[in-house]
User: Which sequence fits this backbone?
């Protein structure tokens, strides 16, 4: 079974910076650019932008430096930006998975948090749970896909949207990053801890719960309070 602390996916100064990038699945995009045509500095630049180290204006200005010859700025943007539509592995209407949006209480956080709850359609017994913590942009299509994949692997998953108090994921990552920067970090942390209490009492969960996070979410999973919280629940 999944361990209580679960799997951690966190970007740090010791990990490859490209690890947290989401490029188009195809090696060649509609613009005809190949990954090998793009300098590593371009990937590093997008990584800085995606993780709020530089703003969009600075990103666009610096990206323009690498738009040379056949490699235009629009084609670079097309290659770098997440292609959620074509990258989804388990679609929302996949008959193998049952997914619904629920709301749970987060009294120390945002009050009420919306989340995607997913479970295998053919589940016959209670299952181990996974809390899926999104990046610094809210519950986007990629994280929802990850949550459904976890369900397909035999778990009941819960993917909260920390942007709920501000209206939820706005439909694009740029606006999502901007919204998330307006939330209190400690309150967001409490939102994900409160997800444990909801999942723990779900009739389809066997009480064994782990957490997986990506970039910002990895920080939440690795956060000392999260670890101490889960250890306390083990007693």
Assistant:
């Amino acid at each position: 079974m999944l361990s209580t602390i679960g799997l951690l996916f966190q970007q740090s100064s010791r990990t490859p910076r490209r690890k947290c990038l989401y490029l188009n699945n195809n090696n060649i995009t509609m613009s005809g650019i190949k990954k090998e045509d793009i300098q590593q500095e371009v990937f590093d630049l997008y990584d800085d932008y995606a993780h709020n180290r530089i703003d969009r204006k600075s990103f666009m200005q610096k990206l323009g430096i690498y738009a040379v010859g056949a490699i235009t700025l629009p084609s670079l943007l097309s290659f770098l930006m997440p292609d959620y539509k074509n990258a989804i592995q388990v679609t929302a209407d996949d008959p193998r998975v049952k997914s619904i949006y629920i709301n749970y209480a987060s009294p120390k956080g945002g009050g009420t948090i919306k989340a995607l709850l997913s479970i295998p359609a053919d589940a016959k017994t209670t299952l181990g749970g996974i809390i899926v913590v999104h990046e610094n942009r809210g519950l986007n299509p990629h994280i929802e896909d990850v949550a459904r994949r976890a369900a397909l692997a035999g778990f009941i998953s819960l993917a909260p949207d920390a942007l709920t108090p501000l209206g939820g994921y706005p439909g694009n990552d740029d606006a999502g990053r901007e919204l998330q920067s307006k939330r209190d970090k400690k309150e967001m942390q409490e939102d994900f801890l409160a997800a444990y209490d909801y999942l723990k009492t779900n009739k389809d969960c066997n009480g064994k719960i782990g957490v997986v996070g990506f970039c910002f979410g990895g920080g939440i999973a690795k956060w000392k309070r999260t670890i101490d919280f889960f250890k306390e629940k083990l007693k």
Remarks:
- Confidence is low (pLDDT under 50) at residues 1-31.
- The two ends are 18 Å apart (CA to CA).
